[in-house]
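Lab manual, section 2.4: Encoding a predicted structure.

Procedure: take the sequence of the chain (376 residues), apply the prediction step described in section 2.3, and record the output as structure tokens. A sample record is shown.
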Amino acid sequence: MILTSIPLSKQQHNIMKEFYAIKKTKVIYNKRERKEIWSLAIKREQINFFDELKLNCPALAHQILKSYQSTHNIQSAVFSECVYAQTLANMFDLKIFVNCEDDSNFIPYQILSLINSYHLVPRYVYSNNDKSRMLIQAGGCGGIDSALITVIDLEIYTIEFKEPGAKTSEPDLPKYHEDGFLVVDKNWLQKYPQFTDMINEQIEKKLNFFEKMGSNINDFSNQSIKTAVSNNYTTIKKFADVICTEDADGYLTMIPTNQVHVWARLEGEIRPAGRNHYAVWTPKALKKFLCNAKIEGDIISINKKFLEERKERGGNKKVSGYKINPIFFVYLKDCYLDGNIVTFNINKVQQLNPTIAGKMFFNQLSHSKVKGYYGF
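Recorded output:
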């Protein structure tokens, strides 16, 4: 790995100096343990050690309970965020835990106003006894993950929690037209300027989503990916001083956000079929992909052999619908089944929107090497 010397900002230096002055600490639940708990949680199974979990990581316990009470599976990334935040709170001796749903007045008004300016929505607070210091864990994808705040002088350090293999962000790309070619407008680029170089490279290559819908696009230049990752945390809504992740030995490790490329392997990715789906916006293209179907007005009848089952996310793996191809699908609840024939209204078909992302992999990260490199 070739390391390039880049100076730290004052905020980065202060928080990292304090962090690395503390004895290195392993995350309270390692990746294997988190995976085991997550596997139980998505199956809504009983966790025999839940009382211990609630004691060690109350934020994670609360997230699991919420998922049990709803129809939504908890995401594995939420596990790491809660675990990393609790580990950091332990390191900074912040022993008081507060669920903001139970006590919305715990955070002083001036602090709440400050973090709102960073587009943070508080979920959990970790505090010392006199409330002079707080680690505030936030929710939602519109802002950063947390903020470590010194209440006395309103000093704020913004922190992003990331797993060793993670995406910086993954916004929807603008909807393409009937021809399937990538089209990006100025408004989108103003909102996500970090992806400008990656986008321009694919426009030059005449990226067509219908031609690439069975696979993801990863052919980007190293420089365009580096720009996308480094600039991801410089926007007003998503500004962060440092990233906390775990190193190869499970120790919580802190690095500056503008130097991710020094410590991680970076990749870029466009997914023609992302997570979000909408009513079909290319109806002509859809009908071309229904060449094996019988079409009577808006009613489509097609043999199952021309479709692929769509499974629910998580551990249940129940059939939730049928894929016409990797981009178009219809929910099972909107289908009528008669033997091998599937019938549905074409207006019920959903279309998956493409996304773009920068990805980082801290496979060889070492707490000791990071500490030594920055002279702490």
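Check your result against the sample. Residues 194 and 228 are 4 Å apart (CA to CA).
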